[in-house]
Structure formats: C-alpha cells, structure tokens
Amino acid sequence: MKLSVTAATGFIGLHLAKNLDKNRQQIVRLNKINDFPIVKLKVCSINKVRTNKR
C-alpha cells in the first residue's frame, strides 16, 4: 500500500513516517518549506529521513 504523510518535517509527521518506513510501507512525504517556524529545522528533518532510508 502506498501512503502519503503530510507535514512530514514536523514532529508528528516525521515520527509517523519513520514508523511506517520501519514497517516497509511505501511513503510519499509532502512538505511545505516556508520560513515558519524555522527553515533550518525542516531541512534538518528532511536530511534525517534521507539518511535513514533502507
């Protein structure tokens, strides 16, 4: 099954996507990168997901 996770750079979305990834689900992560609250945190979250891929 293919799932989409919105706000995947946020706290809940990031942890949900990680959990689904561990269960070998196909995930499409959707994010809106804007300057609220802090762009650096969002980019850091995206990089964490990229490095933890199977």
Oligomeric state of shown chains? single chain
Distance between the termini: 17 Å
SS strand fraction: 15-25%
- Helicity range of the residues? 40-55%
Figure out the total of helices: 2
In the sheet with the most strands, the strands line up as 1-2
Number of domains: 1
Average pLDDT confidence is 79
In terms of structural class, how would the helical and strand content be classed?
alpha+beta
Low-confidence stretches: none
Shape: globular
Secondary-structure element pattern, one letter each: EHEH
Rg of Cα set:
11 Å
Number of strands: 2
Main beta-sheet annotation: 2 strands, parallel
Protein name: NAD dependent epimerase/dehydratase family protein
Organism: Kriegella aquimaris
Which structural traits does this protein have?
alpha+beta; 54 residues; two-stranded parallel ribbon; 46% helix
Structure commentary:
By secondary structure, the protein is an alpha+beta fold. It has two helices and two strands. A two-stranded parallel sheet has the order 1-2. It starts with a strand and ends with a helix. 13% of the residues are buried.
Give me a quick take on this structure.
The chain is α+β, with helices and mostly antiparallel strands and 54 residues long. It has 2 helices and 2 strands; from the N terminus they run βαβα.
Write the layout of secondary structure elements.
Layout: E1 2-6, H1 11-22, E2 26-30, H2 39-51
Parallel strand pairs: 1-2
